[in-house]
Amino acid sequence: MKRLLHALTLILMGCAAAGPVAAQEVTVFAAASLTNALTEVGERFAATGQGRIKPSFAASSGLAKQIENGSPAHLFVSADLEWMDYLASRRLIDPASRMNLFGNGLVLIAPSDSKLSGVAIDSATSLAKLAGDGRIVTGDPDHVPVGKYARQAFQALGQWNQIEPRLARVDSVRAALALVERGEVPLGVVYATDAAMSKKVKVLATFPANLHAPVVYPAALVAGNPSPAAKAFLAFLAGPEAKGIFARHGFRLN
User: Fold this and answer.
1) Which of 179, 199, 187 is nearest to 150 (CA)?
2) Known binder of ligand: residue 173?
3) Same domain (yes/no): 124, 58
4) Among 243, 230, 226, 216, which residue's Cα sits nearest to residue 75?
5) 96 and 110, same structural domain?
6) What is the domain extent for residue 126?
7) Which of 14, 108, 130, 214 is the most exposed, having the fewest neighbouring CB atoms within 10 Å of its CB?
8) Count of alpha carbons within 13 Å of 40, Cβ hemisphere only?
């Protein structure tokens, strides 16, 4: 009998210990371009003992749709304002928690062994001709933020009609980066931070900021899935330690 009571006590203690730990896991849906920086920030946050981060990185559009379809995320970090607005209009985020964390730049890249260099981003330079017989890869402009920014820039340059038929549309900025890294396309448009983390590509030019909407990363808690640990992580994201990490990875602080 004593052994049975002892065993039951151990089981109950184990369940009590497991409960809070499980509750401290924070599911974060975040834009693919945040993969490296946010992973590092998550590790720092875990070291504080406030919770563990379970990240899911993909295009903001796909993540927003997953949240709309009921995926149990605690926190959403988008690569543009539109997809956060999309969830806000459906009352799927906590509006009081919403904040803009940082920004980014848009760059034209090529494989590291490309003969191209020093490209001017202006109406006199035909980017379609620079691609030769190849394509220009970026996120699908119909829903992926980096592609939306790229289309705005191409339109501002008066080159969209020439580039659109030559565009290789992919489902995330990291997919675009990978195609350029493998030399499968001669040119790509990605965020400055993505280009900076790769040794297999080189930056040919930075798109002037006035050619596209500002690249902004908003974050917010997902509605209907309250979590003290998620609130703590959002506060950590806006704090000095996380900002230092994002700045080191090349993000522009607000």
Assistant:
1) 187
2) yes
3) no
4) 230
5) no
6) 106-206
7) 14
8) 12
The two three-digit tokens of residue 117, written as one number = 């260099």
Three-state DSSP class for residue 253:
strand
114 and 98 housed in the same domain: no
Q: Are residues 120 and 88 in the same domain?
A: no
**CATH assignment of the domain containing 61:** 3.40.190.10
Verify that 192 and 232 share a domain, yes or no: no
Task: Give residue 40's identity as a one-letter amino acid code.
Answer: E
Question: Known binder of ligand: residue 33?
Answer: yes
- pTM score: 0.88
Nearest-angstrom CA–CA distance, 132 and 185:
10
Give me the count of residues in the chain: 254
Whole-angstrom Cα distance, residue 233 to residue 137?
34
Do 99 and 6 belong to one domain? yes
Q: What is the pLDDT of residues 183-233, one digit of tens each?
A: 999 999 999 999 999 999 999 999 999 999 999 999 999 999 889 999 999
pLDDT digits (tens, 9 = 90+) for 90-101: 999 999 999 999
- Number of independent structural domains in the chain: 2
Number of helices (H) and strands (E) in the chain: give both, helices first: 11, 11
Specify if 166 maps to a domain: yes
